[in-house]
Amino acid sequence: NEQSIKAGNYRKKTYELGIAQAALQKQNSSPAYLFAPRNAGPNINSDALEYFPSLTIEGSKMIFTRRLNNDEDFYESTWANGGWSKAVPVSGKINTNLNEGAQNISQDGDWLIFTGCNYPEGEGSCDLYIAYKNKNGEWTEPENMGRVINTEFWESSPSLSPDKRSLYFASSRLGGLGGKDIWVTHRNNAGKWSNPVNLGPTVNTTADEGCPFIHADNKTLYFNSNGHDGYGLTDLFLTRRQADDSWGSPVNLGYPINTIDDEGSLIVAANGSTAFFASDGTDTKGGLDLYQFELRDDIKAEKVLWVRGKVFDKKTGQGLPSSVELTDINSRKLISKLQTDEEGNYLVTLPAGKDYAFNVNRKGYLFYSDNFSLTSNKADTPMRVNIPLQMIEAGASVVLKNIFFETRKFELQQASLTELDNVVLLMKENPNLKVQISGHTDNVGQVADNALLSNNRAKAVVAYLQKNGIDAKRMIAKGFGASKPVADNDSEQGRAQNRRTELSIVSN
User: Fold this and answer.
1) For residue 47, is it within any domain?
2) What is the pTM of this model?
3) 33 near 255, Cβ under 8 Å?
């Protein structure tokens, strides 16, 4: 009969998918790969239900949902001394006698966005709410994220991008392609969220998609779906952001991650390979427990490092709220742009394998410039960089760390343009500013040659600024050769610091 034929076709399709996936896994993954989920242990799991794990960038804080006596609340645990601490209810006013679940903690640990269902002030059956960590380390009272995001329908499963400027979530709102779709909203410089945009037919189907998780690399999105080809009811997939910001074709995570049953949410740590999910495995403490496992090579996200620190006034030491930008040096593409908190604290994620220009700006202050090279550098340790900003006044100076020349040459490299354009912007925003561009070299070579080279490099910078609308009368180019070292010349690291271009304020 028709039902038997339909069931047979479904089993055939599932079998063919399994064969194709097995061949793909064999081709793309290490032959030694073993799917071996490990229970997170009794400090996390209990005889209640635990699910929806969420981690900070360091992996030091986990917040998850626990369902006890039919009530969902949030619990937190800290990783220390090789294990998780005993989970306790989160502090503050988040947990109520209503249901809170499907939460996401921001990478810096300062925001918590979650799903609240059947709240009296809600727009629909389930809405998205946000809470902030205060100075005492407690969460503020949650706020409904408003009618731009929430509708009379169902919103759930929020996932915040690492720069806190994009929020992915699932919704059954009108205008979707299926029953439940994945949407994204973007936060502007004024802190306002845009009207959500559907991720489109590459990701969403005429069925249901949900549980989005955007990795710290800000390009790998994991989600579940019962509309794409799968093994069972709902499978887990990933899609990767392309160079043009579109999403690539979804990839089924394959068996045994996916089975004939429903698969829920999955999150992946900053290392790109360690995944956490909820399962009712054979060693469960009670129903659903939290587990972790290592992903196959072909479904890993990019490994991510990060830099965090504080921006402050160089003279007073007072923290300064500022704008932080990270740009891919080679493509000149803006990777992330974020605001520090009110005390100047920031966190920026650095996907491995690229070179980045790092700039910090605040009106009335000279911008700060730094460079992080992760193309050939095998750095494996997060960094802390505290940033002293100087007011725009005579005597203030900054090393332009993202201006590049080939050895013994003075032609500006293409990778310098982002930094140079920042200087152009500085000069245009401060029309009375007069500056000196100083070139410096290491001590390799003849003194006269170094003096000439450094002078020509300074002139090249001034020429670019003049070409882009800055009056030549506002700029001085001067080369100092190796006469003003900032480090010793006995090591390559020291010589690299001495080869530099500086901007100094003459008057304002």
Assistant:
1) yes
2) 0.88
3) no
